[in-house]
Write a structure and sequence with these properties.
The structure is a single chain. By secondary structure, this protein is α/β, with parallel strands linked by helices. The protein folds into 2 domains: 209 residues, UDP-n-acetylglucosamine1-carboxyvinyl-transferase, Chain (Alpha-beta prism); 210 residues, UDP-n-acetylglucosamine1-carboxyvinyl-transferase, Chain (Alpha-beta prism). The strands form 6 sheets. It has a 4-stranded mixed sheet, with helices on one face. Strands 2-15-17-16 form a 4-stranded mixed sheet. Strands 4-5-3-14 form a 4-stranded mixed sheet, covered by helices on one side. Helix 4 packs parallel to helix 6 and helix 8 runs parallel beside helix 10. The longest helix has 14 residues. The structure holds ligand EPZ. The site of ligand EPZ has 24 residues, from helix 1, helix 5, helix 6 and helix 12.
Length: 432
């Protein structure tokens, strides 16, 4: 098993390059199943989740040519002949549940394992299932699998309101609706950049969508979709993570360049809060230039669906607040129990207390390096950020969580000035 060993105190000088978006690449891969020809995707990040999802897709008989180091993938679902997504793979990566919409749309049937929960608690899929029913699918639950079918072999289409709005359910229902017989309307649809970019790919394949980027997504089913070459967008959460890293560990007054990210994908709530900390943000044509202030100001935030403050940056924001001279609070409204990183940060001396679905943070305390345990993707990266500004050495264990969503993180940070290395260890023998 691997850990990351971080020695705090080195300033982050940059530059840092942002990879392709994990949460956009996964729906783009799903959309490739809707056509029977080769679909070439570029700017696909080399991440564990991408490799896992590739294996899920190959179970269907779809041919996948993956060049991870070149960030390219070509999928050809012309050979797709098995409408199944097995538990052993779906349990590893929740977004595998997109196979339900893709297979129902393409084949008129699907047998997909329920994804189960994750580190911070239940992750329901009731909206996905009710949405498929609204399109005319019959759904049975059989030994932990969702068994879905279109009675006439093809979905009719229909209208469904998402409450709450859901990224995954919007994507899943749109996958199924694109090849339905009639029209469909998704009310209260998610409008995250991941969803918008995915809808643009469907449109490039010949799907008939109106209202992309609005809360009412209208889809007129078509008989078939065409193969397309499509480029993935950059990862907005990786960008936000690096902006916070620069603010807490950069040299005051010395700009850090973050290359390849799209600031508009972060939403105004994050950018406004980030600027209110006193950190400089310049949006240039190919990079975002972050200038750390002499003193960081505390800014309380509440996570919301897009364009609100992203829940995927909640843990990272807590570290930023811990470096401020003053108190603040972070309110998690999307996933109320997404606080598995707090006990680990408390062990490092971060003064953060969970009160219901809020974390109260007293900034300005010194942070001590120690051994800390990763629990989920975004919690893990917040521990690395803490290690970068801690006194001494921090061992972030079980970084397989981190490898799901950050490509070559230690290489990127090391090249940008951080003292960090990946070390293999035996969890039961290693005293550290
Ligand atoms: C996506 O998850 C992202 N994952 C998550 O990122 C992200 O945190 C989340 O959106 C919110 O932005 C991917 O894109 C692969 P939701 P998703 O459905 O689609 C409730 C990361 O770190 N809900 O938008 O699963 C749900 O409980 C991951 O990269 C239902 O009630 O999120 C939550 O409160 C973590 N029933 C809210 O909706 C459902 O059927 C939003 O969840 C589905 C969701």
């Amino acid at each position: 098993m691997d850990k990351l060993v971080v020695r705090g105190g080195n300033p982050l000088t940059g530059p840092l390059t942002v990879s392709g978006s994990k949460n956009t690449a996964l729906p783009l891969m799903s959309a490739a199943l809707l056509t029977d020809g080769p679909v070439s995707l570029t700017n696909i990040p080399d991440l564990k989740d991408i490799h896992t999802f590739r294996r899920v897709i190959e179970v269907t008989g779809t041919e996948v040519e993956h060049l991870p180091h070149e960030h390219r993938m070509t999928l050809n679902a012309g050979t797709l002949d098995r409408a199944e997504a097995p538990y052993e793979l779906v349990k590893r990566m929740r977004a595998s549940f997109y196979m339900l919409g893709a297979l129902l749309g393409r084949m008129g049937k699907a047998r997909v394992s329920l994804p189960g929960g994750c580190a911070w608690g239940p992750r329901p899929v009731d909206l996905h299932i009710e949405g498929m029913k609204a399109l005319g699918a019959t759904i049975d639950l059989d030994q932990g699998y969702v068994v879905a079918s279109a009675p006439s072999g093809r979905l009719d289409g229909g209208r469904f309101t998402l409450e709450p709005s859901s990224v995954g359910a919007t994507i899943n229902i749109a996958l199924a609706a694109s090849l339905a017989r009639g029209g469909s309307v998704i009310e209260n649809a998610a409008i995250e950049p991941d969803v918008v970019h995915f809808c643009e790919m469907l449109q490039a394949m010949g799907a008939k969508l109106d209202g992309i980027g609005t809360r009412t997504l209208e889809i007129q089913g078509v008989d078939s979709l065409s193969p397309v070459d499509f480029q993935n967008c950059p990862d907005r959460i990786e960008l936000g993570t690096y902006m916070i890293a620069a603010a807490i560990s950069g040299i005051p007054g010395k700009p850090v360049d973050l290359i390849g990210g799209r600031a508009d994908h972060l939403g105004d709530a994050f950018l406004d809060a980030f600027r209110r900390t006193g950190t400089g943000v310049e949006i240039l044509h190919d990079r975002i230039r972050v200038t750390p202030p002499e003193e960081l100001r505390p800014v309380s935030v509440r996570t919301e669906i897009y364009p609100g403050f992203p829940t995927d940056l909640q843990a990272q924001w807590t570290i930023l607040m811990a470096r401020c001279a003053g108190n603040s609070k972070v309110h998690e409204s999307v996933y109320p129990d997404r606080f598995k990183h707090i006990p680990e940060l408390q062990r490092m001396g971060v003064n953060a207390i969970i009160v219901g679905d809020e974390v109260m943070i007293e900034g300005g305390k010194s942070i001590q390096g120690t051994n800390v345990m990763s629990t989920d993707l975004r919690a893990s990266v917040s521990l690395v950020l803490a290690g970068m500004v801690a006194e001494g050495e921090t061992h972030v264990l079980r970084v397989y969580h981190l490898d799901r969503g950050y490509e070559r993180l230690e290489e990127k940070l090391s090249a940008a000035g951080v003292d960090i290395e990946r070390v293999r260890y035996d969890e039961w023998a290693d005293p550290n």
